[in-house]
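tokens incoming
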């Protein structure tokens, strides 16, 4: 008998097949049993009639518990009423393992904490499955975009010796005789070296921040894609970002209407994600927020709440540009038109989601960069190689980093970023 995936069942109508999977539910009506099966590729209902399958199988089926692993053999039938259009008339069931226990995740509503504690099992449910499928497509779309644009993939190190972002969120790792290494908060500094070598480069990998914040936007381990381009200013940088984001949204919309429906995502706002995105100067954003009652003062970074309010004023993602220098990282280029600000932009996702991208033009003048490193009291000796980049063929260059899970939270319309990664890591969770 041919073993098939549920996804391919349509090409086996009226034939006998074997499906290997799990029983996610079972309903019985007298001698009729409805087996809800999933195998990762799809879901299908198997109908077992006791008289047809015989007494031994009938008994086995009656004893099946939720999430039993089973090989089910039977004939594929076309059935217009079935959600997938097909059904399986069961001939026999081979039980691989039948749980002794009741499955902890029932149909009833569970709180997010309970579900996360059982993430290893929760992954089997349709909602996480839809999310993981969209995540897979988003990753492919990002990579395809850069591949087609002629960017070179540069995998930057995870163990690093220089601080890329704020010293306050470093994970330290004992490193042999060399003292302390850090888990990468960003691969940016290394990408800057690679962009002077190859022009246009990107990376995509796990990123670590010892975030003490317990917000719905923060993970301690997340995935970030970063791009870096030589001979590009902050305007070029924003144009690249908006094309990239709209390519990813388009790919998800094209391939995942069903999954978005499982996540109960209203796709109307996503249809509006077309280039160009809106742009708003930081100073104007502060005024707009103050007018809405925010306590923000010129000079402050935008808080999560401010971002939420701001994005609700725009239908599309919005770039907030030229933040105060003191609110941003040491490597951002001073704005010649207003030296208290830097040439940078954060991209805020609409519908209250907030920052998904941080990007900037980089300080390419040796003396200014060195002064900023000293001002921030960063260990100068570990930046020797980074400063070399300003000594040997320094050029204007720009880049950015986009957080995968924040982007997915927005595209999928989910409340919490924790749903967007298979096994989330937060300040209070390292299990499972
Ligand atoms: O704005 P950030 O800190 O920028 C950088 O790391 C730059 N070095 C990137 C670059 O220019 N190459 O982080 C970039 C993005 C944020 O906009 C956010 O989407 C995501 O990374 N991010 C987080 N996502 C989840 N949990 C956290 N704790 C995150 N911190 C940042
Ligand atoms: Mg940022």
């Amino acid at each position: 008998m041919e073993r098939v995936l549920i996804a391919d069942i349509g090409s086996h109508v009226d034939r006998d097949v074997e499906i290997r999977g799990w029983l996610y539910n079972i309903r019985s009506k007298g001698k009729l049993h409805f087996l809800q099966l999933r195998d990762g590729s799809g879901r299908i209902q198997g109908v077992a009639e006791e008289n047809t399958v015989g007494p031994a199988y009938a008994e086995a089926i009656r004893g099946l518990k939720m999430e039993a692993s089973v090989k089910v053999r039977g004939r594929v039938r076309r059935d217009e009423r079935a959600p997938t259009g097909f059904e399986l008339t069961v001939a026999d069931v081979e039980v691989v393992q039948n749980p002794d226990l009741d499955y902890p995740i029932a149909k009833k509503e569970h709180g997010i904490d309970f579900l996360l504690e059982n993430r290893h099992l929760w992954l089997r449910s349709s909602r996480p499955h839809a999310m993981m499928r969209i995540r897979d497509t988003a990753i492919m779309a990002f990579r395809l975009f850069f591949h087609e644009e002629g960017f070179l993939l540069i995998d930057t190190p995870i163990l690093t010796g220089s601080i890329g972002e704020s010293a306050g969120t470093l994970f330290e790792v004992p490193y042999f005789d060399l003292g302390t290494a850090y888990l990468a908060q960003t691969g940016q500094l290394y990408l800057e070296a690679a962009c002077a070598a190859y022009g246009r480069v990107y990376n995509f990998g796990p990123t670590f921040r010892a975030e003490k914040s317990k917000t719905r936007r923060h993970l301690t381990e997340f995935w970030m894609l970063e791009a870096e381009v030589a001979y590009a200013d902050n305007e070029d940088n924003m144009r690249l970002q908006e094309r990239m984001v709209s390519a990813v949204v388009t790919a998800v919309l094209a391939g995942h209407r069903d999954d978005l429906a499982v996540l109960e995502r209203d796709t109307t706002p996503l249809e509006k994600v077309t280039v160009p995105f809106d742009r708003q100067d930081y100073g104007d954003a502060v005024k707009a927020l103050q007018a809405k009652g925010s306590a923000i003062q010129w000079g402050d970074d935008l808080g999560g709440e401010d971002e939420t309010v701001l994005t609700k004023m725009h239908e599309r993602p919005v770039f907030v540009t030229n933040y105060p220098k003191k609110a941003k990282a040491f490597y951002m280029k001073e704005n010649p038109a207003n030296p208290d600000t830097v040439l940078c932009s954060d991209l805020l996702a609409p519908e209250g989601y907030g920052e998904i991208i941080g990007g900037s033009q980089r300080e390419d003048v040796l003396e200014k960069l060195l002064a900023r490193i000293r001002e921030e009291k960063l260990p100068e000796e570990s930046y020797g190689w980074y400063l070399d980049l300003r000594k040997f063929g320094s050029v204007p260059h720009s880049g950015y980093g986009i957080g995968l899970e924040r982007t997915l939270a927005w595209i999928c319309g989910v409340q919490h970023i924790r749903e967007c990664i298979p096994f989330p890591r937060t300040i209070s969770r390292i299990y499972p």
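note: The mean pLDDT is 96.
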